[in-house]
Amino acid sequence: MTRLEIIYDVRMILEGGKITDDSIHDDDYIGFKIDQKRAKEIRDTFARNPAIEPIWLQDLGIMDLALVNKADDRTVSICECKFSKVVLPPVVMLHDAGSNHIDVGTTIRSSCGEYQFYYMPLSHMAMLTSSSVIFGYKYFTKVGNSYYLTTETNKCRPVVILERPLDGYVVDNTYILSGNLITGLIYEVAAGNVTYNSVKYFKGATFTATSTLTFSGPGKVTLQNQKRRMTNDDEYPMSSTMAQTILMKLFTEDYGIQQKQVQDIKNNSQVPFRVLN
Asked: Is 132 part of any domain?
């Protein structure tokens, strides 16, 4: 289920089962409302049952960190402690009363995945000095959308629940099977060798897919750019059950359409719905 498919269902209902070119309904605005409803439904669902569904989570991949001092200002030299800082998109805040973590939906790990950073309140983090017994442990705190990590490190890998999923990324490091190449994308030989368009490529070499979607040989092929921005055509981080719930709330709360009217439009329409069915 993609974001575009959800938008399609919304427009089909709003336009009585027929999408027209002169529609007054904007896809971007509908997408904004879907993101908004999803965030609220996640918070409400977690409040009823404090468990995180894996489908909500988005892996932001490896992210670079900036080195800052306590004052978060490079011109201030009197603060001896150094922290690593990263700014992330807004997240859906989920608070568990049984934890001192302000957001149990946010996980920050090292780039290699060997260790995890654990939340520490800002007031405690601000009191750390290089001589503190716990200074060498792995902690993070948050101010707005800025995250501060200790000890000093260059990269991290956050996994979060984004308020706007399209702020996230798609990380695809799987091997590509012959026949599944996409025209225009650049591929890299990860192991062995392959032959593409009568040219043999060895490990580390790259080639751009043209109209030929197959390659041959014993080698392994991956995307050269394994991390890209999420688009409307990618899988949306929400279950089909939750999608139906938020669509009904969108129709009734934002557009004043009753559930019976939605069902009537579905029954009268000749076009299959992607999410509502």
From this structure: yes
